[in-house]
């Protein structure tokens, strides 16, 4: 459990403290996720809701691995890509999906820690493996849909120059553009809100443990 706590601290620094991930934090995060996935396979780790959330958090680094491996393949073997704009947008959206999934799951872990600290008995029926898996699944579905919308918007922007002004695709382009812009704004403000909420939760937990 000490290793899992260190992993959570690393992820909190990577996604909720740093303004943007750098090469060092990304590399350490990938190593930590790999170690965590291996650790959670051990029979010594009990299957609890927190373990389910942490497992899903570790798997959220898969898009980062896909992005890094793709860039390495292109750079190493000098692979020619027919649609550079599409590929670069896809890799960027994968990184965005990773950040959003990680922030949401970290907030779920913080909220569960809050319930364990202040409402251990009353919240026992909420802190179940089934609910943790359901929460993780919902987060993955929502962020995947967000990533698909961003990718569609980027693809339509790339092809908008060659599309006729009165083409039926213009309506789809404007709708996706407005939806993506609105979602990006909501994601930005939600990220700020999650940072504030997480700081408040651990502030309350820290002083509660200190008083005890």
Write the layout of secondary structure elements.
Blueprint: H1 2-17, H2 23-40, H3 49-59, H4 62-77, H5 84-118, H6 129-159, H7 169-211
Transmembrane segments: 12-38, 97-119, 171-203
Protein name: G-protein coupled receptors family 1 profile domain-containing protein
Keywords: Membrane, Transmembrane, Transmembrane helix
Q: What's the short story on this structure?
A:
The protein has 212 residues and is mostly helical.
Verbal overview:
It is globular and about 60 Å long. The two termini are 21 Å apart. The mean pLDDT is 84. It has one domain: Rhopdopsin 7-helix transmembrane proteins, CATH 1.20.1070. It is built from 7 helices and no strands. α2 crosses α3. It has 212 residues and is mainly α. The chain has helices at 2-17, 23-40, 49-59, 62-77, 84-118, 129-159, 169-211.
Structural class of the helices, strands and pairings? mainly alpha
- Percent of sequence in beta strands: under 5%
CATH fold-level label? Rhopdopsin 7-helix transmembrane proteins
Determine Rg (CA atoms, Å).
20 Å
Low-confidence stretches: none
The SSE string, one letter per element, is HHHHHHH
Indicate the CATH class. Mainly Alpha
Q: How many β-strands, per DSSP?
A: 0
